[in-house]
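Incident review: delayed structure delivery

Summary: a single-chain prediction request sat in the queue longer than the usual turnaround. Root cause was a stuck worker, restarted by the on-call engineer. No data loss occurred. The affected request and its eventual output are reproduced below so the record is complete for anyone auditing the incident later.

Affected input:
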Amino acid sequence: MPFSIAAQQAASPMPQPTPVAGPIAPADTLLAVFDDMRDEVIGAADAMPADKYDFAPGCSGDFKGVRTFGEQVRHVAQANYSFFRRWGVPGGVDPKTLSSLKTKDELMKALRDSFAFDDAAIKTITPENAFLPLPGPPKYKMTRVSMVAYAMAHSRDHYGQIVEYLRMNGIIPPASRK
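Output delivered after worker restart:
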């Protein structure tokens, strides 16, 4: 370990876990992480000015055909509904209905609504159903917990792209301003 990292770690030891009287409910522990990710994605999407929602890096070479900033935001919203729409949670929409959304206001509302839907779905996870199999390709061994993990990984992937688009436009992402 490089000296500077070791020195930093010695100066600020890892916080000790808060004593808990028993197990933490699956929904509570998943939402703690999911909600943090949600706030970063929404904050980054909101940081882009409305007139830049049609921004895409370059139009040729390696960037030909990439999504615009707005299309990235819409894709995350559509995927959020897709991941949890078969869980029987009210408030879901057919992801295809978001295809016509173009403006920042429309896309931000769809993004926020999709994350609210995801939160509602995650709140249905219990110790009894957390690891029961869900329909899907057998090779993925899908459960409610693995679906949440996949949804978070997917959103983080697109968050990284959204951050790059912000930086290409001279905007520091909100999570980097802290």
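Verification: The radius of gyration is 19 Å.
Action items: add queue-age alerting; document worker restart procedure.
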